[in-house]
Automatic annotation (TrEMBL):
Name listed for the protein in its UniProt record: ABC transporter permease
Membrane-topology annotation of the record: Multi-pass membrane protein
Superkingdom of origin: Bacteria
MF terms (GO), sorted A to Z: transmembrane transporter activity
Main location: membrane
PANTHER family in UniProt: ABC TRANSPORTER PERMEASE PROTEIN MJ0876-RELATED, FERRIC ENTEROBACTIN TRANSPORT SYSTEM PERMEASE PROTEIN
Length: 346
């Protein structure tokens, strides 16, 4: 009887929780568009968006129209997309590798993206053909392939994949440091360091058209494999016993994880703790079943990232902090709380 009541309660609570999360996401995106050095009322924001999307003719200054549409809205949408994608990556990796500390950067993708970006910015590889984001994406894919080959040679277990990811991260971080130290001038080194800490200053609409579809595809594919992820919690042998095509699922989901992480890192740089903390927070709210956990983590990651972007723009007057600094400032204490709660409930 108790189980029946619990399921019924959870049945109506989850849609309500999802609706509240969607409303909160819309609210923080609206705040992100309104808050900044120039404060813009939400009413003006609505009019500016309506003018561009629906062809209305509300009278607005060109400055307000440009700030809302060309700068702040695109930035907020990329923040939401990257937060959702990184949180999804954390959920997937923690299930596949059966390690609560697994997150997107465990595969060395972020370090590879950093090396690719530095190669374009400082060494001039592909200059005039490759953008900073394209170089970062290529570096991220190379890093993922290298770590994948190392892991396959080492046996492919979850623990060894993590160790190979750590080794790959150290290798590419060393390459990045070497390039910056030996080839960069002061201005280039400052720009690289700001990008490595996570930066949304150059985000525009072309980045939205890349980040948003990748995040949506990631949600759809991961939801399709939600049952398989449930099975992986108990190990690959248990998953195979339940009829899961273990190797195929691993390849597909690790590939999707690499694609999402590489894309988001190539746009916003290295942003930590989203893929680590958000999955644990979402799991605490809705439980371990992935048909609930995946959408909850995606929404929570989107909200967290947009909120972090707001804080990065207002915490210090006349200065914008790298968003990775903000996520670390909030994410590290949150993760400490999660570990403490897990210790008490163990």
């Amino acid at each position: 009887m108790t189980q029946t009541v619990s399921r019924q309660t959870h049945g109506w609570a989850l849609p309500v929780l999802t609706l509240l999360a969607v409303v909160l996401l819309v609210f923080v995106v609206s705040l992100a568009v309104s808050i900044g050095e120039i404060s813009i009322p939400i009413e003006t924001t609505v009019k500016a968006v309506s003018n561009r999307l629906f062809g209305t003719t509300f009278e607005l200054s060109r400055i307000h129209q440009g700030i809302v549409w060309d700068y702040r809205l695109s930035r907020a949408l990329v923040a939401a997309s990257s937060g959702a994608a990184l949180a999804l990556c954390g959920v997937i990796l923690q299930a596949l590798l059966r390690n609560p500390l697994a997150e997107p950067y465990v595969l060395g993708i972020s370090a590879g993206a950093s090396t690719g970006a530095v190669a374009v910015m400082i060494l001039g590889f592909g200059y005039g053909v490759l953008t900073l984001s394209t170089g970062a994406f290529i570096g991220a894919v190379i890093a993922f392939l290298l770590v994948g080959l190392l892991a396959a040679g080492a046996g492919g277990s979850g623990e060894r994949i993590i160790l190979c990811g750590v080794a790959g991260s150290q290798l590419f971080n060393a390459l990045t440091s070497y390039i910056v130290t030996t080839s960069a001038n002061a201005e280039q080194a400052r720009g690289v360091m700001f990008w490595l800490l996570g930066s949304m200053s150059g985000v525009r609409w072309p980045d939205v058209w890349l980040a948003a579809p990748i995040a949506i595809v990631g949600v759809v594919i991961s939801m399709f494999y939600a049952r398989a992820l449930d099975a992986f919690i108990f190990g690959t042998d248990a998953a195979a016993t339940l009829g899961i095509a273990v190797r195929r699922v691993q390849i597909v989901l690790l590939g999707v994880t690499a694609l999402m992480t590489a894309t988001m890192v190539s746009i916003v740089g290295s942003v930590g703790f989203v893929g680590l903390v958000i999955p644990h927070a979402a799991r605490f709210i809705v439980g371990p079943k992935h048909d609930r956990l995946l959408p909850t983590a995606a929404l929570a990651g989107a909200i967290f990232m947009v909120a972090a972007d707001i804080v990065s723009r207002i915490i210090i007057p006349q200065q914008i902090l790298p968003i990775g600094v903000v996520t670390a400032l909030f994410g590290a204490p949150a993760f400490a709380v999660i570990l403490y709660r897990a210790r008490r409930t163990a």
